[in-house]
């Protein structure tokens, strides 16, 4: 864990984050995003399309993974780019515990731009049930000057 972001270097690990996603979270996200696809709330519909159950919205999973970066950097405005590929769903059971999503990140590159600003490239990982649910997760973060 790095406490002074001006000293960030390749290999630094971001503090991990674990988040529980419940069906109530899916309802709130659906309302905020406007994505009311029934695979995110109906076990019957999710099963009818071959899913193992109700799944979290992919963009919700991506946003949660982004939190590991924004909590580390302390300023969401310092994130200059962020992208992932969706590899498998987060299945959210109909109970009070929900699904545990484990998030982590590590600095894979630090560069200095023409403007003298340092940028850290962070590899972001999200796991559910012991398996990766996002691949190629990469965030680029503008670092404070040394």
TrEMBL record:
<protein>
    <submittedName>
        <fullName>Dehydratase</fullName>
    </submittedName>
</protein>
<feature type="domain" description="MaoC-like">
    <location>
        <begin position="17"/>
        <end position="95"/>
    </location>
</feature>
<comment type="similarity">
    <text>Belongs to the enoyl-CoA hydratase/isomerase family.</text>
</comment>
<dbReference type="InterPro" id="IPR029069">
    <property type="entry name" value="HotDog_dom_sf"/>
</dbReference>
<dbReference type="Pfam" id="PF01575">
    <property type="entry name" value="MaoC_dehydratas"/>
</dbReference>
<dbReference type="InterPro" id="IPR003965">
    <property type="entry name" value="Fatty_acid_synthase"/>
</dbReference>
<dbReference type="InterPro" id="IPR002539">
    <property type="entry name" value="MaoC-like_dom"/>
</dbReference>
